[in-house]
């Protein structure tokens, strides 16, 4: 038997997260923070650099990019930490959206709360 109330609340929450992502993305863009993280590590990238050594390593990778040469050649490590935060937060929020969508979807699907006619739509939203 479908449970439309909880499914509806979940969808509204996911929509709110996507809306918030647009704000986070705007700040990322306005601070020219995009591309400050040079590698996409889906799992290990969840944790930002913690030690000074890892910060220096990340900054060195960024210094080797055309982005750094064109826009941020003046930056020091502390400046880099500021733009790195926004790019890291943007990616983290994206991961959270995926988890917040996928895990309840699997649960609702298994419970039969997603109508058969809507299952492909929900998979399409996830993809």
Blueprint of the fold:
Blueprint: H1 4-30, H2 52-63, H3 66-71, H4 77-111, H5 119-126
Helix pairs in contact: 1-4
Protein model, in words:
The chain is mainly alpha-helical. The model has no long low-confidence stretch (mean pLDDT 94).
Give a quick account of the main beta sheet: strands, pairing sense, barrel closure: none
Strand content: under 5%
Question: Could you tell me the mean pLDDT?
Answer: 94
Helices and strands, in N-to-C order? HHHHH
From the structure above, extract its key features.
single chain; 127 residues; mainly alpha; 69% helix
Write a short abstract of this structure.
This protein is mainly α and 127 residues long. It contains 5 helices and no strands.
